[in-house]
Records
---
Amino acid sequence: MSWIRQNAHNSLYKAYERLLVREVKAAPMPQHVAIIQDGNRRYADKIGEPRAHGHAYGALTTERVLWWCLDLGIKQLTLYSFSTENYGRPEEELASLFSLFEQRFVDLFNEEQIYEKEVRVRMIGERDLLPDSVLRSVEHVEEATRHFERHSLNFALAYGGRKEIVDVVRSIAKLVENNTLAVHEIDEHVLAELFYSNNALADVDLIIRSGGEERTSNFLPWQASGNECCSYFCAPYWPEFRRIDLLRAVRTFQEREQERRISIVQRAFLFLNEIGKVEVEEVFNLSRRACVITREEVKDILRDFVPGITAQND
């Protein structure tokens, strides 16, 4: 009877997954998703296998997540694969990890779907901290995909968010010292050009962390914190991360975005009401300064908030 229960469970899981897919595809999709891949070692401990196996299982999850994101229409995916703090791990584990990274970038270079779906692969981080063999495999796939613009797959390797900002400040100091840059010319655009990504990373819309921890661990502080992105924390270790976990995270982002849009429209209405200029067009013009929204969406929100207003303005 156990196989009957298992089949029933699988059927329910698939039905729930299909429902989630329909729900999230009906709403605006996050354009840049960043994931902290936590729990590989703890998963290996849980199943009684060497920690190197946990990283290998995690690499398989990473591959699946890439295809799931492409299927959903997510344009940019950034994965926190190895932080500068990870260099404190045992030498044997580091050697195993670097060997795995090297092989995975070789696999990406040989993956036909990368080219069919026009995915540009990049690494962000301190390149001089990586072994030469890993860096060669990274640069090989970077060069092969550098002309693609449809999708972006970014790997944060030897990366630390605070260190990145420190490096940017040092670069600016040198430019000012050499009279290449004037102090009054320093702005957000100048800083963005000096980040590891050379301004290739869009603001992060959604950060996901697996493994049960609820912190963002020095990951993309400029692109994420400055954008007030949505954070989603889930319990499964990274090798256990499922498609429904990704879909739930996207749904959380969409629910948060809808609440924000409703709040923006309502505040725009209340402000315009104070100055006696309450018209749908005025509410729309004010709202779209803070978010991407259509006139019809503004009308729908106002119908719930102030019944009768849209009829007066149509």
Note: The chain has a mean pLDDT of 88.
---
Amino acid sequence: MKSFFIKVIIITSVFISLLALWRPAVSLALMNSESYINWMDSLNFGGEETSTSTNYKFKDTLGEIGTGRISSTNYAGLIGFRQSEADPKMTFAISDTLINFGTLSPSAVSSDSITITTTTNAVDGYVTTIEETENLKTSGGADINDVSDGSVTAGSEEYGIRTSGSAGQMNGADTAIITSSQTVASYGSWINGSAVTITFKAAISTTTAAGVYTHNVTLISTGRF
């Protein structure tokens, strides 16, 4: 049996993209003076700033007019006093940063997995992408072929990933990792604890060169505020 050790190092980062709506210099609805400008006018007949108990703090308005979420191809907006108040928040966690296939054999597919978990209050959710620095290869330049038929198969030289979880975007087939960004997870609204498992798979043939195969993979998660 040929000796293989395959290592994939996962590099992670989080980017928060804020959608800024253009604000006009003059507006009939704009409250301002020499000392202030109020960008969050609202029409209502009451509300409470200090509702609290042991377990919560709550701010509310009564009778707000024309509130809610509006959007088009190029923008998204939250209308109303409380709609405009939430601070953008996002967390992204990864269960491990090292994939280790150990010793590979032509008779079996080797796999290892990580779980990525995202929480955000972004109105349009989030998107997580994956990309590689280069093919999975040895220091001498031998590489393992990217999977191209949707399934990493024992006895064939192939390498790829598959996702699982409701937000996974590669759930239906084993997919090659490439040097440009591909969406690996996505959700279209605010979400608490969106978990996606990414399973890495590798297989070799009897003619695959022996050696230690490595490469770096980057995961980038972006909030769509």
Note: The first strand starts at residue 4 and ends at 17.
---
Amino acid sequence: MAILQVNDIHVYYGSIHAVKGVSFEVNKGEIVTLIGANGAGKSTVLNTVSGLLHPASGSVVFDGKDLKGVAPHKVVEHGMAQVPEGRRVFLQMSVEENLEMGAYTRPRDEIQGSLEDVYRRFPRLEERRRQIAGTLSGGEQQMLAIGRALMSKPTLVMLDAPCMRLAPILVEQIFDIIKELHAGGTTILLVEQNAQAALAIANRAYVLETGKITLSGTGEELMGNDKVRQAYLGG
């Protein structure tokens, strides 16, 4: 059953037609990945789904609700959370204050339990709970960005390039976290430059080129596709 349906969305930046009739769906309990070159429109698609951008036409339906005109903070209340490209943690706030910001849609009496859940998943964050976020390493900031998203208790998490500029050992950790979230029942929509790693864990995948979806299939099918191998997997 589709928890997210994106139907023929067109998105413009001024006169630039950035997303051209993109349609796809994410079923409950899946990991779905979008792969493509820089500038293909992947982040624009995620930002449109989360309500940060508005399509000129087309629709986004989440859990049976059309999100047209729904403010981004209301989208979070519906059960969708986005981990943005570049992490975008609140650099002058402590780790714990950042996490609490992620829980702004939740009743106050539930926040402590959510903090404990995040700290159990990310012990490093608990060790640094009073530390200012801007002093964390890139990997720690990425863990914090993911933890902040989890504080809203989402049913769908969208991750935008979570491994950007991270060392290989940290990339492995981030993918382990994604697999763990999925195993716990969270539906995942992943945008990732590391196409090989993304396809390896994806139930299904879509290839985005210059604002259009040009290929789709299971992660395994796209991993074996000659065109995908040559363009994104190093031949």
Note: The chain has one domain: 2-232.
